[in-house]
Amino acid sequence: MIEDELINIWQSSSNQERVKFEKSKLMIELQSSLDYLNRWWKFGVRVEIVAAFIAIPIFVFITFWIPYTSSKIASAFIIIYVVFVITRLTSIKKFKPSDLEENYLTYLKKSRKYLEAQGNLLETYKYWGMTPLYPIIFLFVFDFWEIPSKRIVIVILFFNMIGMHIFAYFFHKRRVKNEIKPRIKRVDEVIESLKK
User: Fold this and answer.
1) What are the residue ranges spanned by the domains of the chain?
2) Cα(173)–Cα(119) distance, rounded to whole angstroms?
3) Is 164 helix (H, G, I), strand (E, B) or coil?
4) Phi, psi of 14 (to 5 degrees)
5) What pLDDT does residue 15 have?
6) Between residues 29 and 164, which one has the greater pLDDT?
7) Could you say which of 40, 124, 144, 192 is the most buried, measured as most Cβ atoms within 10 Å of its Cβ?
């Protein structure tokens, strides 16, 4: 009964009202999609921050406890590296639009910039997130290489790091391709429909 009434209302409505309805439906779907992505991003940053709060005290302790000079220097570099990564991840917060923008079109344009910043950060992660860590870890384990029993642990550590970074690289690449770029395209579509 209600469905029949809705169909009658839809069929009797003018094309202009239908277009308005389609636009609002598109806007609601896009907003839901953006909210999901923002929640995912916020969760990822929180995980990194928690990991940093765990790693920093550990490496401060290691800096004073470990007897090898190269490992002490590497521990200090790891602390700097962790702070740099957290700063880099939280720096794109400035692009995040607020829900209280002047109008929806401004909100969408800022959302597009925010999505582009997220995509750029994930695509360049291999340069600022992965690559700087290898020389630091090499410096950390350099003096341990002299101890034959520690060599297997060092080799396992490096293979583990390489495996984790390969996984992270492809995970980020897939995330950008399957989630961020389609949302940018949807934002562009909604912006174009609102300009008409």
Assistant:
1) 19-195
2) 9
3) helix
4) -80, 165
5) 46
6) 164
7) 144
Segment 125-149 mean pLDDT: 86
Measure CA 26 to chain center: 25
Six-digit token pair at 33? 């999609």
Instruction: Judge whether residue 68 has pLDDT over 70.
Output: yes
Q: Cα 40–49–96 angle (5° rounding)?
A: 45
Residue 157 CA to residue 116 CA, distance in Å, equals: 34
CA end-to-end span of the chain: 35
Q: Taken in order 158, 164, 167, 168, is the CA torsion positive or negative?
A: negative
State residue 68 phi and psi, 5-degree precision.
-85, 135
**Spatial contact of 9 and 151, defined as CB atoms under 8 Å apart:** no
Q: At what angle do helices 133-141 and 148-175 cross, to 10 degrees?
A: 170
pTM: 0.76
Measured distance CA(78)–CA(71) in Å, rounded? 10
The rounded distance, in Å, linking the Cα atoms of 72 and 41 is 33
